[in-house]
Design goal:
Largest sheet of chain A: 6 strands, antiparallel, barrel
Number of helices of chain A: 5
CATH superfamily of one domain in chain A: Rod shape-determining protein MreC, domain 1
Structural class of chain B: mainly alpha
Strand content of chain B: under 5%
Oligomer: heterodimer
Radius of gyration of chain A: 26 Å
CATH class of chain B: Mainly Alpha
Helix content of chain A: 25-40%
CATH topology of chain B: Arp2/3 complex 21 kDa subunit ARPC3
Largest interface: A-B, 63 and 58 residues
CATH architecture of one domain in chain A: Beta Barrel
Number of helices of chain B: 7
Number of strands of chain A: 14
């Protein structure tokens, strides 16, 4: 009996393995059935994701917030008491304000570049059981989004649209190891390719072996034929360090992106590029530094009006 | 394994998949994410008999293949989970009964979760997928294992009870 049961298990295993291999073969041969099934899943999931989005949005960054959590116990208790009444409203308000800020930034960037964009909310993030790094947006083909469109945030490139349904779209983030984007160094016009590394850092491979790059150089997208998948001029990142190894044929550099891909709330999908290349018009300029000079207070026994602090803005 | 049980488990896995994709995936866990779906799938596979492990593995893999964010070819997860199901099935006697050993159950699910991701990476590499650097992948696999180890105790007792209620008197 045991032998017969074992044979049956083995037969079942062989059938299931062959079925899996058959499905993989179908997918690799480009049979649309498999792609359609994923698209259908996305269509079904997107309303659920929208529902969950409102619940998980305030707690989505819970773990990263914990890292910045500080203060003494007494202070914490005071703050707890103070905030208990308005906690719920504040969380929601902060979340909405954060999203508004991100939306304003993205629209501002798109406006400066002359791009036509569709703003979209992030309603999902790539599954932990897959190795691809993606986000899901609440806008799809009914909003004018098609495959291979550029997606930007407040400060620069986020990724490209990988898959679209009527009401949602999946964006491949630029941190994904399969992501490649042609870039131009804003300062020297040297051309290269930026490759995702799976984290917040990227690898720049310069096409010209004697190209001019240095630390803090800003990279912008080179642009693609017909503006798909990349429109030109979108800021990609900033060079952290240049690796000039004599063993490598090209110059390489470590790049950090302008966008924090871990906390995206609202993004903009570029549906139509500008008629011209904005060149370096979107390169972020350094924020002016605010320096506060405080004159020491005179002795408290002397009755002299205290001078007010002098605030001056210094441009870099 | 009876057909109604297969249907029930499939529906339960689909529901878990929706929660995973729509909810859990939105939380920014440090290092890497936690897959509730994998933890539940492996938990179910560990509690089933030989053919049950393989069948549930295959169904769970197919559901994972439906993930719209997946880069891997359709069928890859079905293949990986069938292999995991077979590994669990062939070691059924040495694994023993987890219903009375919750600690061992949690440890087992966490380790198999890491093993599953590793086999998935190997299968992906064989199929020509680019999944990033080895160092990054090691961090992802280890991170997922640790998160599974931490969160599985919240899920597995309920899973064990749920399974017990769905068993027919003959299956008990």
């Amino acid at each position: 009996m045991a032998g017969r049961g074992g044979n049956r298990s083995r037969l079942l295993l062989v059938i299931l393995l062959v079925t899996s291999l058959f499905l993989i073969t179908l997918d690799l041969r480009g049979v649309s059935l498999t792609k359609q099934s994923r698209s259908a899943t996305q269509t079904i999931l997107s309303p659920i994701q929208e529902g969950f989005s409102s619940i998980f949005s305030p707690v989505g960054n819970f773990f990263s917030d914990i890292k910045n959590f500080g203060g003494t116990k007494a202070k914490l208790n005071d703050l707890k008491k103070e905030n208990a009444k308005l906690k719920r409203d504040l969380v929601l308000s902060a979340d909405i304000q954060g999203q508004l800020k991100k939306l304003r930034g993205a629209l501002n960037l798109a406006g400066r570049g002359g791009y036509t964009v569709v703003a979209a909310r992030v309603i999902g993030k790539g599954s932990a059981s897959t190795f691809s790094q993606t986000i899901t947006l609440d806008a799809g083909s009914s909003d004018g989004i098609t495959k291979d469109m550029t997606v930007i945030g407040s400060y620069g490139l986020i990724g490209i649209v990988k898959q679209v349904t009527a009401t949602s779209s999946v964006v491949l983030l630029m941190s994904d190891p399969t992501f490649r984007v042609g870039v131009r160094v804003a300062r020297s016009d040297s051309v290269g390719v930026v490759i995702g590394q799976g984290n917040g850092h990227y690898l720049l491979q310069l096409l010209d072996p004697v190209g001019d790059i240095k630390k803090n150089d800003v990279l912008v997208t080179l642009g693609s034929d017909g503006n798909k998948p990349f429109v030109p001029g979108v800021p990609v990142g900033k060079i952290n360090s240049v690796n000039n190894s004599s063993a490598s044929l090209t110059q390489e550099a470590d790049v950090s992106g302008f966008e924090s891909l871990g906390s995206l709330g609202v993004v903009a999908v570029i549906t139509k590029g500008a008629g011209h290349d904005p060149r370096n018009a979107l390169v972020p300029t350094p924020e002016p530094t605010v320096t506060v000079y405080v004159t020491p207070k005179p002795d408290s026994t002397t009755v002299v009006p205290a001078p007010s602090p002098t605030v001056s803005k210094k441009g870099k | 394994m009876s057909l109604p049980r297969i249907a029930f488990i499939s529906a339960f896995l689909l529901l878990t998949f929706a929660v995973q994709e729509a909810g859990i995936a939105r939380i920014n866990f440090p290092v890497t994410g936690f897959s509730l779906f994998l933890a539940i799938l492996i938990g179910l596979m560990a509690l089933e008999d030989r053919s049950g492990s393989v069948i549930i593995g295959f169904i769970g893999g197919l559901i994972l293949d439906l993930s719209p964010t997946s880069n891997s070819p359709f069928g890859q997860w079905a293949l990986v989970m069938t292999i995991i199901g077979y590994i669990i099935a062939t070691n059924r006697e040495s694994i023993g009964d987890f219903t009375t050993r919750p600690g061992a159950f949690v440890l087992f699910v966490a380790i198999v979760s890491g093993l599953t991701l590793t086999i998935s990476l190997i299968a992906g590499a064989m199929l020509g997928e680019d999944n990033g650097t080895i160092g990054h992948n090691i961090i992802v696999v280890l991170g997922n294992t640790v998160w599974t180890f931490l969160f599985a105790p919240l899920v597995l007792p309920g899973l064990t009870r749920l399974r017990a209620t769905t068993l027919s008197s003959r299956e008990r």
